[in-house]
Amino acid sequence: MHCIPCLLCGKELEKRITKKKGKPYFVCDPCGIQLFIRRKQGIERLEEFFRNAEKADIPYKQHAQHFHEMQAILKEIDDVNGEIDKMGLSFFFSDEKLRIRNSLRTQRENLFFELEQFTKRKE
């Protein structure tokens, strides 16, 4: 079956065909993305992509793996930001809470550094 990655989550989307005109389209249920290819040139490019996909299978799998690794780092950054936000304003913090907040900020900086290093390795 022919598949392409979702633009937002990277999930494999299976090619579907419209009932009326027999044109290809893709749907990502979790993200809600619908991608329709309506013009002749786009359909031809899609078919060419699928013809070449077998040759590019290993690079695609590597790209998908890298994409998921980056998503994991970004999710962790988002989680740390959420914890920092939950703590509220620092005016009323005890020494213990200040240490926790500083540790979370350090963790966030480490994650940004990890993301930058990951990107440089993949270039």
Strand order of the largest sheet: 3-4-5
- The helix-and-strand class reads alpha+beta
Task: Please give the alpha-carbon distance between the first and last residues.
Answer: 30 Å
| Sequence stretches where pLDDT stays below 50 over 5 or more residues | none
Strand content: 5-15%
Q: Write the element-wise H/E pattern from the N-terminal end onward.
A: EEEEEHHH
**Main sheet record:** 3 strands, antiparallel
What is the overall pLDDT average? 85
- Proportion of residues in helical segments: 55-70%
DSSP summary, beta strand count: 5
Total count of domains: 2
- The outline comes out as elongated
Integer-rounded radius of gyration: 21 Å
The number of helices is: 3
Tell me which oligomeric state these chains represent.
single chain
Overall description:
The chain has 123 residues and is α+β, with helices and mostly antiparallel strands. It has 2 domains: 3-55, no CATH class; 58-122. The protein has 3 helices and 5 strands; from the N terminus they run E-E-E-E-E-H-H-H. The chain has a 3-stranded antiparallel sheet, with no helix packed on it. It has a two-stranded antiparallel sheet with strand order 1-2. Helix 2 (57-87) packs antiparallel against helix 3. The two termini are 30 Å apart. The mean pLDDT is 85.
